[in-house]
Design a protein that fits this description.
Alpha-tocopherol transfer protein-related; 291 residues; 5-stranded mixed beta sheet; Phosphatidylinositol Transfer Protein Sec14p; alpha/beta
Length: 291
Amino acid sequence: MATAQSNPFKIETGPLSKEAQAVAEKDLRETPENVAEGLQKLRELLEADPTIRYETDDEFLKIFLRPTKYYPKSAFQLMKNVAEYRAKYKTIFDNLMPEDERDTFVNYNVVNILKDRDQLGRRVCVINAGKTWDTSKVTNDKLLRCLYLIQLAAMLEPETQVRGIIVIMNLKDMGMKQVSALTPAFAVRLMAFIQEAMPLRLKELHMLYNPMVFNIAWTIIKPLQTEKISKRTYFHSNDMSSLHKFVDPEFLPNDFGGTKEKINYGGKDWLPAIDNYLDFIRKWNACGKVQ
């Protein structure tokens, strides 16, 4: 997971680029004064609450301060949301490691990360929820676990913390098998994760090749969307020029009408990059509500 000039399957943990520094200051209030104050006050809030536990080094706390624009109370609330979510769905996420979903990532191509960021430096996550999704092999909760693990990798990248991510939902040839997997209970878990318990900036959600049958699932999902996420959701059907109004085709693969080569990579290529950060994932798994 890196820029085209380097290993495309490397997690970028280096310092912010100058461009990202400017974005952080403009959009996230990331000034030396706000950073220092945010870190100090967030540590104080954590120390005063014995019910949750998190790492308190600067880089870890910035994972929560950046998406909340360095307002410490908001960052603290996000930390509590994450802890509550993980506790509520403990059977799904408890001590989850990449190895637990290696088969899903490598063999079933339900979730992928594009090698290239878009024109605004945002990560692009592709969810293949159409015919590609073999629901007999990949349950809805296995899909959610994959998204959760990808989130952990993205959180490690300062550039992604600042610039955010976009999601492309590829619904090509979706049928009733896939629609049936999008149950009301799963929709609640998914939307709670995206909107309340994911410390990343979700900038846009793009629906491609959405068939009529998807309307069944959408009647379940839409009422669960916050106004903020609803305004960032776009339906394009098979009109790639509509998608290109938001994502420059220069940064997209041929699969989505872009000038980059057709996607010929997947989990087997970029999962090893996540394997380099298993210590971080173990630390993350130890965080949350105090038992």
